[in-house]
Recover the amino acids of this structure.
C-alpha cells in the first residue's frame, strides 16, 4: 500500500492507496521540520493520523496488522538533507517496516502538475516558488527569497501590495471604506502586525480573500495583474525554455486568480497548462500510475 503526504506549515493532506487501488483521504496539522522536532511529528502522526485511519471502516486494518508501506512524503522545509532526516526519523518510528522517501514540496508540485512531462511548475500560495522540471527531476530552481525580498505573485506579495496602497491612501474611497469596515484595522495596527508580531507573511496573505471578493474592481484587477507581471519577469521568464514548455501552477492564489494569471501569461508568451488548488490529487494520480 502507498501512503502519500503533501505537507505545509499549516496542514498536511494524506492519501492512502490500498491493495485494491482504492483511495482514502485524511488530513492532519502541518509538518515542517524547520519548526517541528522529530518528537513533535511523531506526536502528530500518533494522535491525528493513526486514529483517523483506524476509525475509517473502509481502511484496511494495517495499523494492527503492522504491514509494510511505501511512503512518499512531500513537504515544505524538506529540501535540505538534515531537515529531511527529522521527518524520516519520525515516520520510521511510527511505520518501522515501511519504505520511506522524503521530497521537497516543489518536487511534489512538479510531480503533481507535470507528471512525467517536462515543464515549469509553480507554487503560488502564501509564498511563491518555481522550478524547471525535465519529467523526472528538478533541473533548475529559482529559489524563493521570502516575502520581504521576493515571493512575487504570492498571497503575501498581493496582500503587501494592497496594504501599501491602503497605507499610502491610494485605494479608491469605496474600496478603502469596505476594507476598514471589514477589518477595523488602523494604520498603526497594520504596522504593528507587520513589524512586531510573528508570521507577518501570513498576516499579509490573509487579505487575499478580501481582495478576491473585490476582484471585479478595476483597481484590484490591475493590482493583481501587476503582481503577476512581476512573478513572470522575475521568475518564469528567466527560465531559458519558458516559451517552449508549458507552465503549470498549484496553490490558492493561482487557483482563485487563474483568469488574471492566464491573461498575464498570454501577454508574456507563456502557455499555461494545469492550475490546481492543491497538489494532492495530482500526486495521487502520479503514484497510482507507478504502482
Amino acid at each position: 500500500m502507498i501512503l502519500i503526504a503533501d505537507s505545509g506549515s499549516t496542514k498536511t493532506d494524506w492519501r492512502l492507496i490500498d491493495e485494491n487501488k482504492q483511495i482514502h483521504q485524511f488530513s492532519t496539522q502541518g509538518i515542517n521540520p524547520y519548526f517541528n522536532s522529530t518528537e513533535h511529528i511523531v506526536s502528530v502522526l500518533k494522535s491525528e493520523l493513526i486514529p483517523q485511519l483506524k476509525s475509517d471502516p473502509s481502511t484496511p486494518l494495517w495499523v494492527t496488522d503492522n504491514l509494510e508501506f511505501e511512503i512518499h512524503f512531500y513537504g515544505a522545509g524538506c529540501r535540505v538533507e538534515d531537515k529531511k532526516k527529522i521527518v524520516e526519523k519520525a515516520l520510521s518510528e511510527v511505520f518501522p517496516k515501511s519504505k520511506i522517501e522524503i521530497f521537497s514540496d516543489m518536487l511534489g508540485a512538479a510531480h503533481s502538475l507535470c507528471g512525467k512531462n517536462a515543464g515549469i511548475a509553480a507554487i503560488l500560495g502564501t509564498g511563491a516558488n518555481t522550478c524547471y522540471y525535465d519529467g523526472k527531476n528538478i533541473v533548475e530552481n529559482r529559489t524563493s527569497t521570502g516575502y520581504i525580498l521576493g515571493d512575487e505573485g504570492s498571497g503575501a506579495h498581493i496582500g503587501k501590495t494592497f496594504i501599501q496602497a491602503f497605507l499610502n491612501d491610494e485605494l479608491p474611497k469605496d474600496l478603502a471604506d469596505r476594507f476598514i469596515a471589514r477589518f477595523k484595522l488602523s494604520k498603526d495596527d497594520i504596522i504593528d502586525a507587520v513589524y512586531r508580531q510573528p508570521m507577518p507573511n501570513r498576516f499579509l496573505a490573509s487579505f487575499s480573500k478580501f481582495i478576491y471578493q473585490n476582484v471585479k474592481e478595476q483597481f484590484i484587477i490591475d493590482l493583481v495583474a501587476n503582481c503577476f507581471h512581476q512573478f513572470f519577469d522575475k521568475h518564469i521568464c528567466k527560465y531559458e525554455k519558458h516559451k517552449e514548455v508549458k507552465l503549470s501552477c498549484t496553490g490558492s492564489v493561482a487557483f482563485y486568480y487563474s483568469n488574471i494569471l492566464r491573461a498575464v501569461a498570454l501577454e508574456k508568451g507563456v502557455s499555461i497548462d494545469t492550475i490546481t488548488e492543491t497538489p494532492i490529487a495530482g500526486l495521487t494520480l502520479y503514484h497510482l500510475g507507478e504502482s
